[in-house]
Specification:
Elements: E1 16-21, H1 25-41, E2 49-54, H2 60-70, E3 75-83, H3 89-108, E4 112-119, H4 122-128, H5 136-157
Parallel strand pairs: 1-2, 1-3, 3-4
């Protein structure tokens, strides 16, 4: 019988850092609220959640890197909204941010979830920030909780 390792959905006693882009704040504030609500419903105390607001999506990796290096957090949650415009700017920002966040996670061995929306329109972003298609901030928080606990289980089995 195969051993299956899966993280439980209990975040009691865990510390989380959120890095939230202020650009497209109509969307990102909803993502932030969804993430915080999910964390607290799963046992995280308000004092164990730090939120760092950054100007835009491109700035997320720098602050996530500093937070990861601090050793204060069990996981980081990155939240933002990049909405396609008429120029290729969208592609450059989305790609650079994705690579930066991935690098931080692998370098620090720390769960870093990616709740950054990349959409074609504001309506699509709002739909994914709680209007019609769930809240991707909440989903990023759920993934962070599960990843922390799965890593703990994996370390027990080693």
């Amino acid at each position: 019988m195969a051993r299956v390792i899966r993280g439980k959905m209990d975040a009691t006693g865990l510390r989380f850092g959120l890095v939230v882009s202020q650009f497209n704040s109509l969307v990102t504030e909803r993502l932030q609220a969804g993430a915080i609500d999910t964390l607290t419903r799963h046992g995280v105390k308000d004092d164990d959640i730090d939120v760092v607001l950054v100007p835009g999506g491109f700035d997320i990796p720098l602050f996530a890197k500093k937070m990861a290096a601090s050793g204060r957090y069990h996981a980081l949650i990155c939240l933002g909204a990049i909405i396609r415009g008429e120029t290729p700017h969208f592609d450059y920002i989305a790609s650079a941010m994705t690579q930066g966040v991935k690098e931080i996670m692998l370098t620090h061995g720390l769960p870093v979830t990616f709740g950054v929306l990349t959409t074609e329109s504001v309506d699509q972003a709002l739909d994914r920030a709680g209007a019609k298609l769930g809240n991707k901030g909440s989903e990023a928080a759920i993934a962070a909780i599960e990843m922390v606990n799965a890593l703990k289980e994996l370390e027990k089995k080693a």
